[in-house]
Amino acid sequence: MINSLFITFYPKKTTSNQNTKAVIYARLTYNSKRTDFTTSRKIDAAKWNSHTNSTRGNSTEAKALKRYLDDMRAAIYDIHDRLVREGKRVSAKIVKDIYMGKGEKQYMLVEIFQDHNDDMEKLIGKGYTKGTLQRYNACKKHIEDYIAFRFKTKDLPVEDVDHQFIVGFNHYLKSEKNCAHNTAQKYIVNFKKIIRIAYANQWIEKDPFFHWKGSWKTSERKYLTDIELQNLVEQEFEIPRLDRMRDIFVFCCYTGLSFSDVEKLSEDDIVTDIKGKQWIKTERQKTKSLSSVPLLDIPKALLEKYKDHPQVKIGKVVLPVNSNQKYNAYLKEIATICGIKKNLTTHLARHTFATTVTLSKGVPIESVSKMLGHRSLKTTQIYAKVLDEKIEKDMEKLQEQLRLLQEQKEGEAKRESRNEE
Q1: pTM tops 0.85
Q2: Which CATH architecture has domain 226-386?
């Protein structure tokens, strides 16, 4: 029956010792959700009647235990009835907590999420980045929108989050928010952290993510070809802001740095070795790993071009970088002018560095991994793409080797034939 509270008692042994008495547990079930807790009473398993959920016999001990369980049942029902009369929210856990003296405090999902994000904001630069905070804020907003969409309310008790909630949220991100599969998975992973916090603090009894397993789809990493990159470098822009943003993007293409790393790049990050070669040696903001990149002629020329820029002279940075939002907007204009149909982003610039600028030119993947600041070679392999041009050249070399080998064999066969004659 919906909205009815059911109470059952059952014995449960905590050890395999046959001589050990079983602990009697109480189970509260409300709207198909249940919670169990100990009654702090024990009994011999043989003296328990599983059909009546009570004790067997008429001994003084059995009667006392029966009265205790009856009083507990009555007290629990009184709590349930009071909550119903007062129009308050009812759940098996709420009733249990009130009975056990834990009060009626409810931990709300959005409130927990907001507290987490507030704490994260205080640690920006001390273990977290602005980008990470932005993702968690975006995830919280999606959670708020989903709760309003499905439950017609502003917030929800965290204990109401179950496997069905997670599946529904995942579907909502794809259907209503038009998120790509992997983007939705990233938001689910962010949300999972909030639920794990609630579980660790015992605000919920079960982890709803226990039976949930995400999946990731392999996406095609786009990059600029040699021709596209050359056209981008040679394109002349009459508008100064577009010229500047193009230069910063090209700098990323030839160094493999991310937007956040270029934004904070300072003179201290430009190091000259004993041979006079200039290097970029900087700690990646995302992974805190060292990125070590030798400066090629094009990025060196760009640093020289902007050394007298007001934004560079006033601050400690070496390039005049605008906000990420404006930067991406300008890149769209640049792509249109250059006839590039790909979505220009700093991620695409890193992919271009890993493929077109380095790997396709024969740079070993271990060296590329070091320059990109990756901790694992597997991460680099995600970026690394073997270009069709390189495959064609490699196959041409192989074909030449096979041709020479065949000519050598034919020559040896002719010499043997002449010797026999």
Answers
A1: no
A2: Orthogonal Bundle (1.10)
